[in-house]
Every structure is written in structure tokens, then in C-alpha cells.
Design goal:
alpha/beta, TIM Barrel, 2 domains, 4-stranded mixed sheet, 14 helices, 21% strand, 5-methylthioadenosine/S-adenosylhomocysteine deaminase, Metal-dep_hydrolase_composite, Metal_Hydrolase
Length: 462
């Protein structure tokens, strides 16, 4: 038998793009690194990845030389509320902020136009820091889906369900019907996946959680919910069932469909239960730290076999929307929690921000690593600035040194959404102007709700 000729594995048609010359972190199961390396792309998917010397076997319609860069998977932001960006920085450091200030503010100000404009603005912010996929939970979620589609990024769009009239529903639990419409309207989209998003165990009762679990099964979509986040929630369900998670286990909502967000108040029995039920966890270390709550036992969950991804939370919760900050804080806080320096090494943290998030969102067959056959969701990071030099360990550099301004190019499905630092889907000035318009419209309501004097919001250029 003749040995296989590598040229025989080339596609009949030329790749559309070959990105070459940078160090490639694949984040695949073998932790392959090609330094220097290349990635070849055809029809939205990666057709080859390897050492630079092999790139000549994959001539493409366009070749992009990115020597002196780091090529790695785009970040997967496993939980956020991107349309809260007009409110960023408002009503900070106040106790009971959610019920006293945020819910009333949203009821007064959140409308479909704000949701779309703010979504476009925040998608741009995320793209400029290397995020290619995000999981969102908010009102008028069809507008978030529409914005993600227009921007060309990947998203899990979750319609919020609460037990009171919401900005987009005039009756309690009206979000369930809206979520059904969302699921039907976006079914089969190549980049946008609909989701049911009951807000929390304290805002959705047991019977409706059971209804949502059944509906998710019928529609074959995920469920995303804040779980074990609040101290009052913890106290309430610990008194009746031993813990929040053990209460939820009585409702039927705990299943592999559930993306449990936060998961702060857990004991060892809860961790074992999470693993047994096959739920996934979206860990938001920065917003949790900012709120002064316990640190999620993410390392222990991961050790128990639970899939863990990382999220920014919303612009009003964690403020920053760049995943570099989140990825860097994750191992640091876990080391503090466990009093151990050796846990959550850098490559594990980067995995959580890429493949971990892909697993959590049910997308790991398509994204999260740079492998043949996967979607070409890629970021190219420049390595010529003070903050990243020198490089001794690629994973340590990626986790502890990179900042948002280092991101040079971002591709989703092989198409540039950021190229040479410039957005490809919208005018940056227009995005900022629209965001500031909604911030001005909200300012009077924010001042009325604000419990203490505050400085005016930034209105540059107006």
C-alpha cells in the first residue's frame, strides 16, 4: 500500500482564506500549539490547521500574514445582559440594587429600540475584545437576536420570564409565550439559537419552572437561569429544602438543558447533584466579586465533572464586557477561595473562556477550539505592545497579560467582524451616538432612583 500523500487531503476547491505566521493555540483535546502555524478556512469552517511549513499545501484565494501574533479561538461569553449598557455605572454600591433600582429603571426605560441599539453597541465592545459568541438573557430578546444577526456574531438569545409584568409583557409570565415565538422565529438559524430564560428561583415559581422545563424539551432548546446568586434566595430555600439547588431538583428544571448562572451558595451535596443532573454552569467572577458575594466553587464543580464557562454578566453588573478581564480573574479568585496556588492553571482558565463556554452553550461540536471541521470563530491578537512582552508561556500570556486593545482581527464563520482593529459591521461613531441618546433619556429616571448624589453621565460629542 502506498503511503498517504498529504496533498490528497486538500479540498477540491481552494480555501477562501489562509491565516498564517502567528502562533496557533488550538485549545483542542491534545492542547496542540503550532508556533508558527496557519489556519485555512473554506465556507465558514476550518479545513486545515498546522505548522507553517505545511501551509504551502493549502493555497487560498486570500492569504493573511499575521507573523508576530497569537491566533486562538474567539471567546465564548457564557452569560450577559448586553442591552443594559445605557445604564452602566448607575446606582453603584447600593444594597438591594436589583429590586430597589434596576427593576424599576427597566420598567420605566426598556423598550425595543433601546434593546436593539444597546445590543449593537455592546456587541461591538465584545467583538473588539475577541468575543465571537455570547449567551444573553433580557427583555425584547428578539431585538438582541436581530442585532447579533446584523453584526454577524454567534448568540444564544434567552427571553426573560418573571412573575410580574415586564417591559415586554403586560402580565406575569408573559415571557413564556414570547419565548415560544422567539424559538419558532429563529429555529434553524446558523448562528442564533433561542433559549428560555426564567429569571431566578425567587422570581419564577415551581409550577412555572416545571412548565418551562417541559416546553424546553418540546422545543429542543436550552434553559438559562440565575441560580443560588442572592443571599435572600439562599436563606429562603435553605430553610425549606436545604439549598437552592435541592429545591430546584423538586421542580424538574435540573437537566442537561439547564445553564445555571452564578451558583455561589453551594455545598458538597449541591456540587454532586449538579454533576448528577448534568447541568452546566456560567461563572461570572467579576460581577460576583463586585457584589460582595461568595466566590463560586467553580474549580470544585469542574473537578466533579460539571461543565464550566465564563461570563461577563451585564454592563451594569460587571461593567467590563471584555473577556480578558474575566479570564484573568477566574483563576485568581479560585486560588484565593481554595488557598491553593496550583489549581486552575492558565491553560485551564483559557479553556473555560473558549471550549468551556462552548460546552455550556451546547456548541462544542462547532466552536471553542481551532480544529478541522469546526466553525472558523477566531481572534488574532497582536504581541507587540508593552503589556504582552516577553512571551515565555503562551497560556500564561493569553490569560494574565492580554488586554482588549491587543485584539487585531476577529472572524465568525470565517468572516471578518473586526479587521485591523476596525469594526466591519457598523460605524463606531453612530453606535456611540445611539447609546448616549438612550443614556440621556434614562438620566432623569436614574437620578430619581439614585439614593445618593452622583456625577453626570459622560456626554462627549453632544
Amino acid at each position: 500500500m502506498q503511503p498517504e500523500n498529504p496533498l490528497d487531503r486538500r479540498p477540491v476547491l481552494l480555501p477562501d482564506l489562509c491565516i498564517r505566521g502567528g502562533a496557533v493555540l488550538t485549545l483542542d483535546a491534545k492542547w496542540r500549539i503550532f508556533d508558527p502555524g496557519f489556519v485555512a478556512i473554506k465556507d465558514s469552517r476550518i479545513v486545515a490547521v498546522g505548522h507553517l511549513a505545511e501551509a504551502e499545501q493549502w493555497p487560498a484565494r486570500e492569504t493573511l500574514d499575521v507573523s508576530g501574533t497569537l491566533i486562538m479561538p474567539g471567546y465564548v461569553n457564557a452569560h450577559t445582559h448586553i442591552s443594559m449598557s445605557p445604564f452602566r455605572g448607575a446606582m453603584e454600591d447600593a444594597p438591594d440594587r436589583l429590586t430597589r433600582f434596576i427593576f424599576p429603571l427597566e420598567n420605566a426605560m426598556v423598550r425595543s429600540k433601546l434593546v436593539y441599539d444597546a445590543a449593537m453597541f455592546t456587541i461591538a465592545e465584545m467583538v473588539r475584545s475577541g468575543t465571537t459568541c455570547f449567551a444573553d438573557m433580557y427583555y425584547f430578546e428578539e431585538e438582541v437576536a436581530r442585532a447579533a444577526d446584523a453584526a454577524g456574531v454567534r448568540a444564544l438569545a434567552g427571553e426573560t420570564v418573571v412573575d410580574f409584568p415586564a417591559p415586554d409583557a403586560d402580565r406575569p409570565y408573559g415571557g413564556i409565550e414570547r419565548a415560544e415565538h422567539l424559538a419558532k422565529d429563529w429555529k434553524g438559524h446558523p448562528r442564533i439559537r433561542p433559549c428560555l430564560a426564567p429569571h431566578a428561583p425567587y422570581t419564577v415559581d415551581a409550577s412555572h419552572l416545571a412548565e418551562i422545563a417541559a416546553l424546553a424539551e418540546k422545543l429542543d432548546i436550552p434553559v438559562m437561569m440565575h441560580v443560588a446568586e442572592m443571599d435572600s434566595e439562599h436563606a429562603r430555600f435553605s430553610a425549606t429544602h436545604g439549598s437552592v439547588l435541592r429545591y430546584l431538583d423538586t421542580t424538574g428544571i435540573l437537566s442537561p438543558r439547564l445553564i445555571a448562572v452564578h451558583m455561589l451558595y453551594l455545598d458538597e451535596e449541591d456540587i454532586a447533584l449538579a454533576a448528577k443532573r448534568g447541568i452546566s454552569v456560567a461563572h461570572c467572577p467579576v460581577s460576583n466579586a463586585k457584589s460582595g458575594r461568595p466566590i463560586c466553587p467553580a474549580w470544585r464543580l469542574s473537578e466533579a465533572g460539571v461543565s464550566v464557562g465564563l461570563g461577563t454578566d451585564g454592563p451594569l453588573s460587571g461593567n467590563t464586557m471584555d473577556m480578558q478581564t474575566i479570564t484573568s480573574m477566574y483563576p485568581k479568585l479560585q486560588k484565593v477561595r481554595e488557598h491553593r496556588r496550583d489549581i486552575v492553571p492558565a491553560r485551564t482558565a483559557l479553556y473555560a473562556a473558549t471550549m468551556g463556554g462552548a460546552h455550556v452553550l451546547g456548541l462544542s461540536a462547532d466552536i471553542g477550539s481551532l480544529e478541522e471541521g469546526k466553525r472558523a470563530d477566531i481572534q488574532v491578537v497582536a504581541l507587540d505592545d508593552f503589556n504582552v512582552l516577553p512571551v515565555h508561556d503562551w497560556y500564561a500570556t493569553a490569560v494574565y497579560a492580554l488586554q482588549a486593545h491587543n485584539v487585531r482581527d476577529v472572524l465568525v464563520d470565517g468572516r471578518f467582524v473586526l479587521r485591523d482593529g476596525k469594526l466591519q459591521f457598523a460605524d463606531e461613531r453612530e453606535l456611540k451616538e445611539r447609546l448616549l441618546y438612550h443614556a440621556r433619556q434614562s438620566a432623569a429616571t436614574i437620578r430619581a432612583l439614585q439614593p445618593a448624589p452622583m456625577h453626570p453621565h459622560h456626554t462627549a460629542g453632544t
